[in-house]
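Model it.
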Amino acid sequence: MKRYRLYIDESGDHTYKNLEDINRRYLGLTGIAIESDYYRLKFQPQLEALKQSHFPHNPDEPVILHREDIINRRHAFGVLDNTDCNAAWEKDFMEFMRTSQFELFTAVIDKKAHRDRYGDAAIHPYHLCLAFLLERYRGYLRYNHAKGDVLAEGRGGKEDLALKEAYQYVWEHGTYYIPTQEFQKILSSKELKVKYKSQNIAGLQLADLLAHPSKLYILSSQGRIPPSPPSFGTRLAKMFRGKYNLYGQKLFD
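Modeled.
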């Protein structure tokens, strides 16, 4: 039986504050599901080779792909100020995306609409998106006769503990649509794993790079925001539509 891991990262604010601000209204949670042997033998080594090719570094001090650092040309990514270097990086990264084997899951929640509807009973938006992702991940694993676990990007302290508790609640109680036993048949661990991109986790780095453009793709396709201007992110979005189809993509109110 094949084994998968779902690598999760977020895009947006996970609180119910300043919801009139369009930049804070929506939270997106993206998961990248990768088969374990493929990840170990091909995906992780190929991503490391890609980073070493464009951002040469001592392996003892690895370069960590982080969207905000890349956009702002911080640290090793300062070389991308050079037009030719940036074009070469984008070309090779797109090729890596085109040839890599993974499934992309994204859930987006309109926090304002959800809070307006449920008031103080509104569920924590991150935890709600996590439940939606687990439902779709479970469906994907079941379809492929596989099992899998989940690794999320750590946020620190109490937030990590709360996230683990939210996962464990789904494991123990199921969701409105899927009973407990159906999750326990498929998920190979009753505990959510939490690590940090600083630990050079390849799956978390890819989730970080894809979470924001994936969220924007869903919002623009649903007419919630204007279409994004041409950019590297919109090129990625076209690849989502053509290759990965945002498996289980959904916007929730």
